[in-house]
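Quick one, T. Sequence first:
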Amino acid sequence: MKMIAHSHFLAITLLFAPAAFAQHQIFTVNPDASQVSFALAGSGHHVNGTFHVQSGSVDFDRSGPKISGSVVVASGSGNSGDNGRDRKMNSDVLDAAHFAEVTFAPQSYQGTIAPSGDSTIQVTGTFTLHGASHDLTVPMQIHIDGNNCTAKTHFTVPYVKWGLKDPSIFILKVAKDVEIDLSLVGQLSSN
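Structure tokens:
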């Protein structure tokens, strides 16, 4: 009798094990399909541009708010379509020669990630810019279709408050905050 009960327990455990393991997944970002867009308001003009996503891998667990990994952006890849302005931004403001990467390392999330379709969560983590770390919580819209995943967010970076140089000059004034739109595209795999 003891042997039969043990084998039933083992069968039930094996039956539910795949569902438990499927909760933990890894989102591997495809840098070529992903993008960071920025918008910076200014007196008499508005600057829009992009940065290059260098890499990204995020581990998450649907059964709880566990999330880890990082998304890395090349700080010297800023492109607004104006070579002189981009050189100034990448060298004077971002100091890409000394701080080549901007990173976001997620640590926890609130909400539910559906196994397929759309989900909206709040992700909290550490945003590292110009060598300094800042706590940041961002809304994240996630779309899962099989093994394909897209994660999008919009947030504001108070770059001057965070210690970066204000690029404003005499009559040319720019905002002290920059608006960021991040779109990550990649693949999901189970761990």
